[in-house]
Design brief:
The complex is a heterodimer.
Chain A (H helix, E strand, L loop, with lengths): L1 H10 L2 H26 L7 H19 L2 H26 L3 H23 L23 H4 L5 H19 L1 H11 L1 H6 L4 H28 L10 H11 L4 H21 L12 H24 L2
Helix pairs in contact in A: 2-7, 2-8, 2-10, 2-11, 2-12, 3-4, 3-5, 3-10, 3-11, 4-5, 4-10, 7-8, 8-10, 11-12, 11-13
Chain B lengths: L2 H27 L4 H12 L3 H26 L7 H19 L5 H30 L3 H21 L35 H14 L1 H11 L1 H6 L4 H28 L10 H11 L4 H25 L4 H15 L9
Helix pairs in contact in B: 1-12, 1-13, 2-12, 3-7, 3-8, 3-10, 3-11, 3-12, 4-5, 4-6, 4-10, 4-11, 5-6, 5-10, 7-8, 11-12, 12-13
The chains are: A mainly alpha, B mainly alpha.
């Protein structure tokens, strides 16, 4: 047992934590977006398609404009474009969110992969975003490596999480989002424009997911590849379900999952842990969280008589 | 055919036509003649007996999975777990084949493998089914979670205990040739196709029995169903297990009829596709069958298009996404959620 603890201590080194934070950025951005959409009452299954679209538009725009900043913005717009279809169907026409979401996964993935395959010759790779310079602060033990040797998108993620948390908790729009999610009929009678609120929520989800996709291509790889988001949109949905719609917890969950991902290659040496099963953790947590929720609901109903 | 089934089928064909027109613009923008592209898709999917036989290999697993989902969707149970159940069923079927093939006559090994695949798929559906029936835990998220758990469990097993000896790729050992599904004549189509009319008949007949009637009642209103002496928990569990068994059986068809071994690429999103087609077909048999035929043909044609014209097969994914998206607008207000 002490052997295992010592092994794990060696695995979660500062280097692993630093790359864990880097890996967490795209998932965290998508999770921030999904939080808004789910709190407004729209389960946004199409997140993966929106990330893929953002990964491609971000990459293509960064190449065309020779500017990572333009790329990140274009990534957000690409994600929002797919989200606009979600809003058109699920919000404006009341279509089935699961089937619409699945259709948009196919559409987003298919379009991004197709457009890249047909234009590959015109899209050279480039140097991804570099670390921001913080001078001597970057050399502070631990925090220096883990926090201050990251690129701009990490700080953008922190700022976005803070901003979204404040907007959801403290503004009129945030209240309208929660009202639309918990009881759309009552919200309507109180003068909330549920349709407008949900449209904005879904568009924001797509925008953040698109930036998350661009964070992969523009922020860390400098290239695009078929299905490059590799299921991060799905992981983000799981993290939001576990965080029960709270932005801060979604961010923490994304950081934890990113760290696990970064540790994966080193965990291979710890024999007690089958690394292939690490990706199941967020999903097992989702099931357990749902069971816990159902059990407390039952107890409450019983207590209420 | 009921009026709903007829109009849904018509809408599906209309949506496909519309999506192909939108796709034509996309393909023209990529510098390829849409006429050539669609001609290649046509000849590569249904244009010859060979192409049809190839397409039938894709139709079989997708249709088995889709038919298995019909009772659950009629009962208002929105299980999206076919994807994981398909992979688990394929793995269990392959391992069962490898285990029993040396000891049994080939036909018996084939039957045993089919049973094992179905049992594996049903087992993977059991926990979400019980959670939904007895604790009221939403089945959409749990079955979704179980798909990803299945994916990792499969990788883990394929990298370790289930990996075939001397295999360079991450895969099981190939199943012995005498446990492959016998082909029909000299085409690539195989006897697995006889399952399709049998399952079609089963689903159709079941829909007309008192039990099938109670399943639909539960989907419409729990109060009405209880008045008709339906047992909701039983219906939820049984319909989810049936969908799981069908997906597992589809996994076996994929292995015994086409793949010959389980690879890490066994998850192709067909479980989700089957669900989308049944949901959009309003859980009716005819539109579901037509949808499966159209999508399987597109899938098969996309490979011909890549080989012949160098157009990325992702093009067909775009068309499929468009068809599904356009079709969702017909469903408004008819279903949970």
């Amino acid at each position: 047992m002490t052997g295992l603890v010592a092994d794990l201590g060696a695995v979660f080194s500062i280097g692993v934590l630093a790359s864990g934070v880097r890996l967490a950025v795209p998932t965290a951005l998508a999770a921030i977006g999904e939080t808004i959409s789910q709190r407004a009452g729209i389960f946004n299954l199409g997140l993966e398609g929106m990330m893929m679209m953002g990964a491609f538009t971000g990459f293509a725009a960064a190449v065309a404009a020779d500017s990572p900043a333009v790329g990140v913005l274009a990534g957000g717009l690409g994600g929002a474009a797919i989200a606009a279809l979600m809003a058109l169907g699920a919000v404006w026409r009341g279509t089935n969110v699961i089937v619409t979401g699945f259709a948009l996964i196919l559409l987003g993935q298919g379009l991004a992969n197709f457009l890249y395959a047909q234009n590959q010759a015109r899209l050279p790779t480039f140097e991804p975003l570099g670390e921001l310079g913080f001078g001597p602060v970057s050399d502070v033990p631990f925090l220096g490596r883990v926090v201050f040797q990251q690129n701009a998108l990490f700080f953008l993620t922190l700022a976005a999480a803070l901003l979204v948390a404040i907007v959801l908790a403290r503004t009129r729009f945030g209240l309208e989002v929660d009202a639309s999610g918990s009881d759309p009929a009552a919200a309507t009678t109180k003068g909330v424009n549920v349709r407008r609120t949900r449209t904005l929520a879904v568009l924001s989800a797509g925008f953040f997911a698109g930036i998350g996709g661009a964070a992969i291509t523009v922020g860390s790889v400098g290239n695009f590849g078929s299905n490059i988001t590799s299921g991060r949109g799905f992981v983000a949905i799981a993290l939001v379900a576990v965080a029960r719609g709270r932005v801060g917890w979604a961010l923490v969950a994304a950081l934890m999952f990113g760290t696990l991902e970064a540790a994966q290659s080193r965990l291979q040496d710890v024999e007690a842990i089958p690394v292939e099963l690490l990706p199941t953790l967020p999903w097992i947590a989702v099931v357990l969280a749902l069971v816990a929720l159902a059990l407390t609901r039952r107890t409450r109903l019983r207590a209420a008589g | 055919m009921t009026a709903v089934a007829r109009s849904t089928t018509a809408a599906l064909l209309l949506a496909t036509t519309a999506a192909l027109c939108l796709g034509a613009a996309l393909i023209a923008a990529a510098g390829v003649s849409p006429v050539d592209a669609y001609r290649t898709i046509w000849t590569g999917s249904v244009g010859s007996w060979d192409a049809l036989a190839q397409t039938s290999l894709r139709v079989a697993p997708l249709l088995v999975m889709a038919l298995g989902l019909i009772p659950a969707l009629r009962a208002g149970v929105f299980t999206i777990g076919s994807e994981g159940q398909f992979g688990i069923g394929a793995l269990v079927a392959a391992l069962a084949t490898l285990g029993v093939a040396p000891h049994l006559p080939p036909w018996l090994a084939i039957v045993a493998a089919a049973g094992a695949g179905a049992a594996g798929g049903a087992a993977w559906a059991l926990i979400p089914a019980l959670l939904r029936a007895y604790l009221g835990v939403d089945e959409i998220l749990t079955t979704f979670a179980f798909n990803f758990i299945a994916l990792s469990v499969l990788f883990w097993l394929l990298n370790g205990p289930a990996r075939g000896e001397d295999q360079f790729l991450v895969q099981t050992s190939p199943i012995p040739e005498d446990t492959w599904l016998p082909t029909l004549g000299d085409s690539v189509a195989n006897v697995g196709l006889v399952l399709l009319p049998a399952l079609l008949l089963l689903v159709t007949v079941f829909g007309r029995t008192p039990s099938g009637y109670r399943v639909r009642l539960l989907g419409a209103s729990e109060t009405l169903a209880l008045a008709a002496r339906a047992r909701p928990r039983r219906i939820v569990v049984m319909s989810m297990l049936a969908a799981g068994a069908a997906a597992g059986l589809a996994g076996w068809l994929q292995i015994a009829g086409l793949d010959r071994a389980v690879y890490a690429t066994v998850f192709r999103g067909w479980g989700y596709l089957a669900l989308a087609l049944v949901a959009l077909g309003q859980a009716k048999v005819v539109p579901t069958v037509v949808g499966v035929l159209v999508f399987a043909a597109l899938q098969n044609g996309s490979e011909a298009m890549q080989l012949g014209l160098g157009v990325s097969p992702d093009f067909v994914v775009v068309v499929q996404g468009l068809v599904l998206f356009l079709m969702t607008f017909r469903l408004v207000g008819t279903q949970r959620p």
